[in-house]
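hey m, so remember when u said the tokens were messed up on ur end? i reran from scratch. heres the input so u can diff it against urs
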Amino acid sequence: MRNDAPFVLYRIGHFLYVHHLKRTAKLLSWLNRFLFSVWIPSSCEIGKGTRLGYWGLGTIIHSNTSIGRNCLIAQNVTIGRNFGDLKVPVIGNDVYIGAGSVVFGEITIGDNVIIGANSVVNKSIPANCTVVGNPCHIIRENRVEKYYEIDVK
């Protein structure tokens, strides 16, 4: 089974959701939950090329979240709403969210951002940054290379 199997179910469910077959779409969301221990509601917006690490094991995405293209979301990531907030995070393109991270609140994550493992992000992050920690802080700005272009040696 391919690593993008949860997104196959999501994409079918999202198609059904957009075409007003919301009950069937919700059924596919629950099937994703049962098969892969991931919650990706059919109502959220996720761009092409976005992937989940380890089939998204333990990952939870809020139903109103918007995620850009070519992102990688590691396992045990939570993306959601803060108490009292009406909106949820908007995540740009080419974003890497490390394992165990929490991204929440009425915030925007810019394009080409790397969020380190176990980080807590509750404030907006500009494009081309690397953030880590709890609470998160920027450790690198104006990064040109994408997370998938970084050569790990």
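this time it looks ok to me. The two ends are 29 Å apart (CA to CA). if urs says something different then somethings off w ur setup not the seq
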